[in-house]
Amino acid sequence: MELLSFLLFFPILLLFFTIWKWVNEKRDQECYILDYQCYKPTDDRMVGTEFCGEVIKRNKNLGLNEYKFLLKAIVSSGIGEQTYAPRIMYSGREESPTLADGILEMEEFFYDSIGKLLSRASISPQEIDLLVVNVSMLSTLPSLSSRIINHYKMRQDIKSFNLTGMGCSASLISLDIVRNVFKSYKNKYALLVASESLSPNWYSGNDRSMILSNCLFRSGGCAILLTNNKSLKHRAMFKLKCLERTHHGARDESYGCCIQREDEKGRMGFHLGKNLPKAATRSFVDNLRVISPKILPVRELLRFILMSLVKKWNRRGSPKGTTQGPIKATVNFKSGVDHFCIHTGGKAVIDGIGISLDLTEYDLEPARMTLHRFGNTSASSLWYVLAYMEAKKRLKKGNRVLMISFGAGFKCNSCLWEVVRDLEDGNVWKDEIDRHPPKTLVNPYMEKYGWIQDEDPSTFKIPED
Question: Where's the Beta-ketoacyl-[acyl-carrier-protein] synthase III C-terminal domain (predicted)?
Answer without folding.
Answer: 335-418
